[in-house]
Design brief:
single chain; about 110 residues; mainly beta; six-stranded mixed beta sheet; four-stranded antiparallel beta sheet; about 0% helix
Length: about 110
């Protein structure tokens, strides 16, 4: 059974940084393209970034490009999202998932507020 456990969220002031992690189990993580998505209060899921299986190819939504960096450690079966210069509009629950699938984990809450 495929499982993902997201962590690293929290409360941060505007302009601050957080690093999210997603640990995978039950799948051949190293062969999977992965993504981060988020869901803000009262809104649907928003794709924010993807990474290829090897980690060499990355894509970002315009809303986070230049501020967020996606990466992965296949040996640790872990996906990361480094988030810098956070804005109040980044407040959401963040999920990781295999590309073209729906999130399976509980997500991690990120709140950006002064």
């Amino acid at each position: 059974q495929v499982e993902f456990v997201e962590s690293g969220g929290g409360l941060v002031q505007p302009g601050g940084s957080l690093r999210l992690a997603c640990v995978a189990s039950g799948t051949t993580f190293s062969s999977r393209d992965m993504k981060w998505v988020r869901q803000a209060p009262g809104k649907g899921l928003e794709w924010i970034s993807s990474i290829g299986a090897s980690g060499s190819a990355t894509l970002y939504a315009g809303s986070v490009k230049g501020r967020f960096t996606i990466s992965r450690d296949n040996a640790k079966k872990t996906l990361y999202l480094q988030m810098n210069n956070l804005k109040p509009e980044d407040t959401a629950v963040y999920y990781c998932a295999i590309t073209n699938t729906s999130p399976r984990g509980q997500g991690t809450q990120v709140t950006v507020s002064s």
